[in-house]
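ok posting inputs for the adenosine-5'-triphosphate job
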Amino acid sequence: MSQLRIALLPGDGIGREVTAEAVKALQALEAQSDDLSFAFDEFSAGAGEYLISGDPLPAETFAALQAYDAVLLGAMGLPDVRRADGAEMSPQLDLRERLDLYNGLRPIRLYHRALTPLKGYGAGDIDLLIVRENTEGLFHDRNAGHDPQAEWVENAMRISRKGARRIAHAAFAEARRRRKKVTLVDKANVLPAMAYFRAAFDEVAAEYPDVEAERVYVDAAALYLVQRPQAFDVIVTENMFGDILSDLAAGIVGGMGMAPSADIGENHAVFQPAHGSAPDIAGQGVANPTAAILSAAMMLDWLGREAEGHAVRAAVEKTLQDAGNRTRDIGGELSTAAMGERIIGNL
Ligand code: ATP
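and the output
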């Protein structure tokens, strides 16, 4: 039996609280299985680590992580801990760029009708996947710095041919495993970089004649996500648009506590809930651990353990059928640990 080596980066705020529940879920699967075994090693990274060592992602940690089969991350950054230029610590973004984790997968699934503010949708009626380009786009300039006295500041949106093509390929590959439809979300009618992104998408789309390809401007996509989310299967988009639309989409299935994510490259992958460190509720034991547990399920899929990944999603769905199984963010009273326990109980 080969052991899967998992690097844990719980990070800051509720990241620590929800990662603990995801690890318990993985350990519960391990206990039930003859051929699944994990070795977990925890590393310190994030705003808390910056306060200790002056570096939110120490070089030894970054080097060590690369030897693991996968990285499970909580959340990083705290509003009061900032770099000299005023930006928050975001070593999770550094990891994406330095490990070239270009493929940002954000599945959006409605697990129970009570979790959506939209009328008429039940479990499974909203089921889409946002494929976010993670390494360039408008985030390309995030470390550029700026002079507060300047009369203007500008940030460029970088789209490379390689970056645009590989994220389009990733989206079509995902669609082939799903309902065979890809929607490109861009602003090709206004920005030249986006017209270039669309041209690359069109070239790649021609290689997947079995998958439907559609193109929607980002403003319309925001509208359609609220009006008719069932029309989407796979959405592929630029980094910043993906950042914004992921939160909007999370909002129609229960909020940030329900939204998992994976950042995948050729050789490495990092799995983390789509939410941040939520300083407003950190330390209270009320954070919803579901997004972190669903991120662990995505990790299982990527490690070739789809049966276990599916078992975790089924346990989440079963748990949420009971209206008593809710943390505060989704209308209940359970603590983080109690919610984790209910999900694990259904595994
Ligand atoms: P980032 O910029 O790092 O994504 P943020 O500060 O924009 O983070 P979050 O930390 O994700 O945002 O928090 C946004 C809101 O959602 C907050 O009100 C927070 O309390 C809530 N929230 C986020 N995650 C959870 C969770 N797991 N359970 C309950 N509420 C959550």
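notes: Residues 14, 18, 77, 256-257, 275-278, 280-281, 287-288, 291, 329 surround adenosine-5'-triphosphate (CB under 6 Å). The domain at 1-101+261-347 is CATH 3.40.718.10 (Isopropylmalate Dehydrogenase).
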